[in-house]
């Protein structure tokens, strides 16, 4: 056995790999989930509204509730998949859908922030205002 | 990584993985808007940085797991090596035609 010939999958050993038909299903499923329809936009607006109110009220439970209804997983996982596949059209579309969702969702905190002037930054807000390397790792593992 | 694995393996629950993704994105997005309207551009900018780095980290984590699950690149592309196409995708310089690409999973 020569160490030069050890490849990625030999080291991983029993790591499951996808069969061809599973890969076909996966592509179709991801193309479905990366579609930015009215339901996606509606859930995005509602979830960011809820998150803004939770942040203003300094309530962790409400912020977590907002995360439960956010629909961002579909386009982002599709973007990761299309990056591996070098699938340009799906990559463009999923990034576009995620960008539109974030852009429209951005309107809700602006409105709720303007309606509640003169607030001191709450602890929940301060926590997001001081990002460090730990937050980056916390984002890497859910993806 | 969690969401990608749950999506690829059908016997793992997908819904809750989306919550972990939203935890990294929705709260910073709301903080950007709220801090902006409260005249606190420092917190707003920091939260925007957090949001963008989280976005990139989520996509790269998902891509890593899909690669470990042996998702292939599609061979019928625009006729250039896959690493060139990936770099073009990441740097948004993909101005060549890619409309009639055939998906070859």
Give me the secondary-structure topology:
The complex is a heterodimer of chains A (143) and B (105).
Chain A: H1 8-12, H2 20-33, H3 38-56, H4 60-69, H5 73-85, H6 88-105, H7 107-115, H8 123-129, H9 133-140
Helix pairs in contact in A: 2-5, 3-4, 3-6, 3-7, 5-6
Chain B: H1 1-8, H2 15-37, H3 41-68, H4 82-90
Helix pairs in contact in B: 1-3, 2-3
What does this structure look like?
The complex is a heterodimer of chains A (143) and B (105). Chain A has helices spanning 8-12, 20-33, 38-56, 60-69, 73-85, 88-105, 107-115, 123-129, 133-140. Chain A is an all-alpha fold. The longest helix of chain A has 19 residues, at 38-56. The relative contact order of chain A is 0.12. Mean pLDDT of chain B is 77; it is low at 95-102. Chain B has helices at 1-8, 15-37, 41-68, 82-90. The longest helix of chain B has 28 residues, at 41-68. In chain B, helix 1 (1-8) packs parallel to helix 3 and helix 2 runs antiparallel to helix 3 (41-68). At the A-B interface, helix 1, helix 2, helix 3, helix 4 and helix 5 of A face helix 1, helix 2, helix 3 and helix 4 of B.
Mean pLDDT of chain A: 83
Helix and strand content put the structural class of chain B at: mainly alpha
Unreliable residue stretches of chain A: none
3D shape of chain B: flat
Largest sheet of chain A: none
Instruction: Give the class of chain A from helix and strand content and strand pairing.
Output: mainly alpha
**How far is the N terminus from the C terminus of chain A?**
36 Å
Largest interface: pair, residues per side:
A-B, 78 and 74 residues
Number of strands of chain B: 0
| Helical run tally of chain A | 9
Summarize the helix and strand pattern of chain A as letters.
Answer: HHHHHHHHH
The major sheet of chain B is characterized as: none
The helicity of chain A comes to: over 70%
Report strand % of chain A.
under 5%
Please tell me how large the radius of gyration of chain B is: 18 Å
The total beta strand count of chain A reads: 0
């Amino acid at each position: 056995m020569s160490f030069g010939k050890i490849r990625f999958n030999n080291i991983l050993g029993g790591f499951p790999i996808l069969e061809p038909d599973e890969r076909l299903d996966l592509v179709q499923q991801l193309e479905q989930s990366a579609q930015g329809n009215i339901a996606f936009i509606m859930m995005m607006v509602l979830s960011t509204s809820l998150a803004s109110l939770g942040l203003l009220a300094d309530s962790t439970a409400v912020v977590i509730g907002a995360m439960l209804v956010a629909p961002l997983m579909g386009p982002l996982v599709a973007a990761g998949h299309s990056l591996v596949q070098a699938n340009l059209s799906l990559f463009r579309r999923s990034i576009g859908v995620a960008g539109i969702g974030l852009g429209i969702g951005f309107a809700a905190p602006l409105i709720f922030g303007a309606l509640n002037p003169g607030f001191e930054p709450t602890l929940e807000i301060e926590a997001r205002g001081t990002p460090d390397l730990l937050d980056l790792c916390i984002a890497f593992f859910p993806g | 990584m969690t969401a990608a694995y749950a999506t690829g393996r059908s016997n793992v629950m997908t819904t809750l993985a989306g919550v972990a993704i939203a935890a990294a994105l929705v709260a910073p997005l709301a903080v950007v808007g709220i801090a902006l309207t409260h005249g606190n551009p420092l917190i707003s900018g920091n939260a925007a940085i957090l949001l963008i780095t989280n976005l990139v980290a989520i996509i790269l984590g998902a891509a890593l797991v899909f690669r470990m699950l042996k998702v292939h690149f599609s061979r019928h592309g625009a006729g250039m090596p896959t690493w060139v196409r990936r770099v073009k995708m990441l740097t948004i310089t993909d101005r060549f035609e890619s409309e009639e690409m055939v998906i070859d999973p």
